[in-house]
Design a protein that fits this description.
heterodimer, A: about 210 residues, mainly alpha, 9 helices, globular, B: about 210 residues, alpha/beta, Oxidized Rhodanese, domain 1, 2 domains
Amino acid sequence: MGPLYPLGIINENVNLLTAFFIGVLFGGMLEAAGFTNTRKLAGVFYGYDMTVLKVFFTAALTAAAGLFLMHHYGLIDLTKVFYPHTYWLPTLIGGLLMALGFIIGGFCPGTSFCAASTGKIDGIVFVVGVFIGIYFYAFTYEPLFEKLRNSTAMGQVNVADWLGISQGLFILIMIVIAIASFIFGDWVQKKVNQNKSPEDLEDLGL
Amino acid sequence: MKKTSIFILTLLFIGGLWSAFLPNVQTHVERVNAKDLLNLVNYSERYLSVDDIARSLMQQDQFLLLIDVRKPEQYKEFTLPGAINIPIDSLFLQKNLQLLSGADVYTIVFFSNGSSLADKAWLIATAAGYNNLYVLKGGLNAWFNELLQPKRPADWATKEEFDKYNFRLAAARYFTGASGTDDATSSKPVVKVQVPVKKKQVGGGCE
């Protein structure tokens, strides 16, 4: 049945419109979960709030298990879904930079737009920074980044195949790791917050 | 942990457990095997010499299809007689793929200024499953330097080298249209050298 657009079930306009509505819903959910608050987002790095870890880890694994099961019961054809190539060094550097920006600024790109749209000044400043970064990268891509960007190509790899275990087993292992990390995260959070007054916690958006 | 969290995580765990018993998704990507790729790169039978191509052109071989993989500007400036232009970046356009799949009927030869761009095109197309393709060894550089301006072999050279030299002289006249006056002399070596072609083919068969 799926994916809808690659199989020609919906046309490009419907595809974009669907993406728009999913985007609006996603933004609404982020705001409802308090993810437009930098303190809540950065909490994962300081240990006082593990919500980000829980939400994104759960989301990724729900998607993984869901897509895998749907593929086996004929609801989606995973072989027609976009599958990115891996370049490990630029990905590693990019990931570190992203984490650094996350710690300093308190947003990831998606949540910064949500925060900006709710009128938060730090969100708007962050979005301006995002655009400066985009233009900087675009105009210096050839002299500065192209070589790095194309280095250490590994092709379309998959961790499960690389480890030589079945894909379903890998998903199960990741879910077990996630649950363990949530329990550990809760323990850290309790430990970090035990000496804070209710006002402090209020200030952190908890 | 809250009750809802426990409920969601239990669901997720059941989903994971269920997944663990299902077979893999067949990966859609055919990965290029390094060994196969190396074998392809080292496969020297793909090369045709400028003499082979010149001979086919002079005999007006209907089944020779020359593909210029350089940029359209370069193609407009100069190309081989009868060649069509498929720049390497548009090799996989639908209409071009149809052309490539005609390789069992036509002798399809890629060429560029040197050999490397044509080699690239050959490698990409062959890796994508199109067989029986060829590359003009040395490209247009060899066409100019070896075929159109042949160097006279030393006096003690073998007869074959002299035959080759004579053939190239004739080919140079044929393709550049230079000194059209001595038509008789120019056509003679051509006929003469057509004999070694047959010899070569027979020789190849015996080996």
